[in-house]
């Protein structure tokens, strides 16, 4: 598990260390640097997968993230034209990389690399990893199949594009942790568990998959059970957007084993408040099972789902890390990170201005009589 990441002269940060827990929630106003944390980790993985990180340099553009050129990556007030990253692992391993600056380059030459190659034996660089970006795939008539990504590397794609193929391939296998299971699921099989968690979003949901191997496509349909009535199958394009958009999040959390790393942007997208709370609880459950979850979110409902999981003793409070990114004039426009803590009752010790407080501000206005 990654314990921290430190960035040097990267985008909005001159130097910044961010600690990570089993479950880390990154929050803040738009443009404050939340995504920069994810991008730093993704750049390291991307460069490693391209065979560059160990001896050549940092690849700024690829399948995981596209930064542009070195000019886009360098902190604008950098005192030294070098970009650096350091990560520390729970087992004590550390890795530190520094890269030389070349304004128009999209591969930065390596200046310093870790002396201990064991750092590459972590989930950040191996197959027990999922990253789901904010711009995921919604309902489609068909979804892609990929023997390489799904059957060889067990990936669902950064946009969730291989989720249907993944579920068709592994839906009959049991999830690795019983404590992750939904009490109303018919069995521990992945497909049954996914359907049970989908019911928290839309009651009675059932999934139907059809493989068209000759065209490398999978079609995804849903039916709904109400009492004894079972509906016809409906194409995903004729069903609520949130079901298909959230499916990759649920599959990634349930299908991962202990030691995996999952990074998710905006898991709340297209979900009603109750569904968002349940996804927050599911992420907390996954983290309690030894899966590291790093999530960027604007949703107070996601936060409350995590708080409820702590309150109900489904995850220990010291496994949850909350970071709020802000920018104030006092620090000359630089982004700073505030880290509230959560106690065993799900209570948070401090609420910096802007930290999930919009409803309180609205309520205060509404309760003030108009003159």
Major sheet description = 6 strands, antiparallel
Rg, alpha carbons: 21 Å
Average pLDDT for all residues: 92
Helix and strand element order: EEEHEHEEEEEHHHEEEEHEHEHEEH
> What fraction strand?
25-35%
* CATH fold naming of the largest domain: Rossmann fold
Q: State the shape.
A: globular
Low-confidence stretches: none
Our measurement of the CA-to-CA distance between the termini, rounded to an integer number of angstroms, reads: 56 Å
Strand segment tally: 17
Structural class by sheet pairing and helices: alpha+beta
Order the strands across the largest sheet as they lie in space: 2-1-5-6-7-4
Helix content: 25-40%
At a glance:
The protein is of the alpha+beta class and 371 residues long. Helices cover 26% and strands 26% of the residues. Helix 5 (190-198) crosses helix 6.
Question: Topology, pairings included?
Answer:
Blueprint: E1 2-10, E2 13-19, E3 23-28, H1 34-49, E4 57-59, H2 70-73, E5 82-89, E6 94-100, E7 107-112, E8 129-132, E9 143-144, H3 147-152, H4 163-170, H5 190-198, E10 205-212, E11 217-226, E12 229-230, E13 234-235, H6 241-255, E14 261-265, H7 273-288, E15 292-296, H8 300-311, E16 320-327, E17 335-338, H9 358-366
Parallel strand pairs: 3-15, 3-16, 8-14, 14-15
Antiparallel strand pairs: 1-2, 1-5, 4-7, 5-6, 6-7, 9-11, 10-11, 11-12, 11-13, 16-17
